[in-house]
Structures are given as C-alpha cells and as structure tokens.
Write a structure and sequence with these properties.
Blueprint (H helix, E strand, L loop, with lengths): L1 H9 L2 H14 L6 H11 L5 H4 L2
Helix pairs in contact: 2-3
Length: 54
Amino acid sequence: MDDLVQIINTLNQTEQKEFHFFIQRQKLKKERKDLNLYKILSNQKDTSVGAITK
C-alpha cells in the first residue's frame, strides 16, 4: 500500500482528476473497487490497512 500512496502523492491536483476520469472511462460500472481504493488513498492521511478497511 505504501508504494501506491507514494505514487498517488506524486500527482498534482490536475493529474489526480485526470487519473480519476481515466479509471472511470476504462470500464463503466456502478461500483468500481479500483476507483474506490484510489479515492480512499488520495484523500486519507492514515493509509494503514485498518484505516482503509473501515
């Protein structure tokens, strides 16, 4: 998880928005697990497994 957080933290605001739209565009589904994980990791300060699974 730490590697994912580091990658996400290297993106600026514009890149984060573009990545978000890219994920949505790839496959239209109502509940995207990868998009949900991205949102959690990009918005949450505590990225421990326990905090993410809450």
